Known about the structure:
Glycosyltransferase; 2 domains; Beta-galactosidase, Chain A, domain 5; four-stranded antiparallel sheet; single chain; seven-stranded antiparallel sheet; alpha+beta; elongated
Amino acid sequence: MATQWGSPNQEPQTMPQPRQPFVHDLITVLAAPTQVLSQRSGEIATSVDRPTVQGVIHADTRVLSGLSVTIDGESGEHLATALDGNQAQFTFLLPTVGTGVDASGDQSLRLDWFRVVEPGSMAETLVISSPLPAATDVDVMVVLSCDFAPLGSIRRGQPAAPLPFPVPIGDHFGWAHEEMALSLVAHGANLLLSEDRCQLTLHWRAAVPAGSQASVRWRMSVQDAATVVVAPSSPPLKTTSPGSITATSDHRLRAWLTRSLEDLTGLWMATRDAPEDGFFAAGAPWYLTLFGRDSIWTARMLLPVDLEPARGTLRTLARRQGRRVDLRSAEEPGKILHELRRSTVHLGSTWFPPVYFGTIDATPLWICLLHDAWQAGLPSEEVAELLPALELALQWLIECGDADGDGFLEYHDRTGHGLVNQGWKDSADAMRFHDGHTADGPVALCEVQGYAYEAARGGADLLDAFGRLGAERLPILGIPARHPIPSWLLVRTR
């Protein structure tokens, strides 16, 4: 807890320490690199006193931090929430809304609030249905706020105050922040600002016919010149082709599996420099970007379904393969990155530069994915293009991954600000000795040794098959003779 002091005669005030917001009770609708997190009612409610990740977040920046809907000043009674891919529906009864009619039960107006998220945009439709015997005029209000908080600050639990909007003109409205440009279209609405300009209200006067319905629509779009991730030009997963895994699976699991594959579409993204090479982001809300380990594993598990994720993941990571030694970013020659962001991410004493390489397993897993994709049918000419990256990755296993030559891949953060643990369990307290004490580095994880052995075997197979040197003994790739050969690399015999 932090203590804040006022005047000498005042008692100290205890201020809560920032903490990472919980997300378990939020509704998430996403189409990478855009995600919307809200309450179950669809409302987005942020507070300086109670930090939350709720909002419309595009490529690591929250572009809307508040959203509420009222009909005649009432939010209504929330009945149900339904999710379907990148769409959501929130349903309410409006028992107190009407034209002097004692509306109750089946005589209540109903609000169906539809949300559709696409890469770089969110569109909403509000449908008011009436069973009443007379037409009803209602005031529809949508209230918005915006704080442009970076995702790293949100994750740290740091409060962010809403920023003022510019003065709107008409029902087409735009505003900007740094390299982001936002636009809003709300046909037929009056756009009003609060006194401090930190709340923008969209106001419609809607006529709901007797026994019928009326609707209003609005849409917000964002363009970001500084983002590193975009929607890919390559198509998403092919899940309905003859002989696909969904067509041959146990019928009791087919619906679940089909839905899982469809949900993955929301994580499908690419980098700005190569939109044709798609990959899967690690997850929402904190990891909606390229992660070496996570993107590789997802592509590898989907090889029976579609080769495209493996192709895009391999190429994207190879383009960003380490070229030099840089302690700040944990980069090393041949190493595959851990995480890609638009800017430096700060999490307390831990902070990561935009391209961070603090992972022990992404490099051997990249080799394993290349081998498995080749076995699954990745064309030979595409594999051949990646062989230089393969050789660099194999070289990293010996020169850097096993820096002390003891036969084990190990990690140790030497900067004091990077990830203390660099395997799949990367929380600071994840690795412990048998007595419960936190393990000190360097740390060699058991599963990583298995990855390294598999990578060595798969890498040697590829070098042999494509007539490259080094399958017998990887030191022929240029590793200094003073480096001993780890036992897990001596996997080929003639």
